[in-house]
Structure formats: C-alpha cells, structure tokens
Amino acid sequence: QAQLQESGPGLVKPSETLSLTCTVSGGSMTDYYWSWIRQPPGKGLEWIGFIHSNGNTNYYPSLKGRVTISRDTSMNQFSLRMTSVSAADTAVYYCARHWKDAYGGLIYGFDIWGRGTTVTVSS
Amino acid sequence: AIRVTQSPSSLSASTGDRVTITCRASQDVVSYVAWYQQKPGKAPELLISGASTLQNGVPSRFSGRGSGTDFTLTITYLQSEDFGFYFCQQYSGFPPTFGQGTKLEIK
After folding, report:
1. pLDDT tens by residue, A60-105
2. Minimal Cβ distance to B41: which of A99, A111, A115
3. Cα separations (Å) of A16 from A10, A13, A84, A87, B34?
4. Distance CA A47, CA A38 (A)
5. Which terminal residue of chain A, N or C, has fewer Cβ atoms less than 10 Å from its own Cβ?
6. Contact assignment for B43 to A108 by CB distance below 8 Å
C-alpha cells in the first residue's frame, strides 16, 4: 500500500513563498490524481488543488493565481508552491491520493493521506 | 461551493455504545459522501465511500447511510480504539468540501 509523506519548512514569513513536497513510497504515481488539502487551526479541511501523473492540474478557485502544483514522477514526488502567503495560510497541510473509479476517471475522494505537516506564517 | 455541516462537533461515549454522526450538505450530493477517521499524529483513513460502502479492513461496526443532503455515520458497539476525529466530505460538486469534524472521546 502506498504511503505519503509531506516535507518542507514549518515557518514561512508573510509575503514569501510556501513550498512543500509529498513523497510517495510503496507505489507508483502513474495514472493517479494527487491533491493538497489543508486545515487551518480551528477550521475544517480545505481542498487546495490536484495534479495528475500526466501533469494536468486544477485548483480551488479562490487560490488560483497563488498556487502551483507540480510533479516529478521519476522521484515519485509532487509539490505545492503557494506565493504571497499571509497568516490565513497557517494550517496543517496534507497530501492525498484520489481513489480511482472503474473507468480511471477523476473522483474527488481520497483513499490515502499523509500525516500532514504544520506550516506557520509569521515574521 | 457546497457547504457541509457536521454534528456534533464533539462526542463522549462509553465502550459498547452506539454513536451517530451527521452530515448535511447544502444541496443534493446524491451519494457522493465519504467518511474518514483520524487519530492524533496519524494520517486520515478512508472509512466509507459512496455514503455507505465500507472500505476493505474497516470493521463492520461502522456503517454509513443517506442520500441527497442528509448522511450519517454510525458506530455500533463502540470500541476503545474508535476514539479520534471523524469528518465527512462531499465529492459531488466542485470543489470537494468537508465537514468541520467530530471529536469522539471514549468515557
């Protein structure tokens, strides 16, 4: 069974860029969709965006323009880059794998998650 | 975006009890609801998809019901290992959205 592990700085300064990486072990990235999801303190989870192993992406509308998700399938990794961060971006960030439907289509449900990494935006 | 309202936000129950967590969507999501369990310091685990389909390895004391806008997760005969955080998610509309979660504590 695949496992996911998030990594990256735990502290980012306001207006700077947040960068996180998710490493996939025990499985391949091929033919799957992969997402970033976050949970601000005291709030519910918020989906950020996905990338397919073929490079296709889609993002939460209000974050479009600040967020980029990329992947390196040779390294079995995908990454999140979020620019111009503010305190509102303080959250636990999770990476997750979408489960597949019978036809390999996009399902916005997540069958494997990482443990999450805490990112604090503060000067 | 579809709003998902989950209740209660916290719950304390004894082993052997039956507990029910509810999620209500702001519009029809058919049966496109998933339930997850998360324990402290661990990755969330998918329990149920399609509102009622139990994932492999999930104990049969967990069950999900509902369609349209109202959904429930029920744990019958609660075990001590069932403590944790539970949250629902709709994946009918874009973007996918989540309930606020329920913290289940064992008395």
Report:
1. 999 988 999 999 999 999 999 999 999 999 999 999 999 988 787 8
2. A115
3. 13, 6, 5, 11, 35
4. 6
5. N
6. no
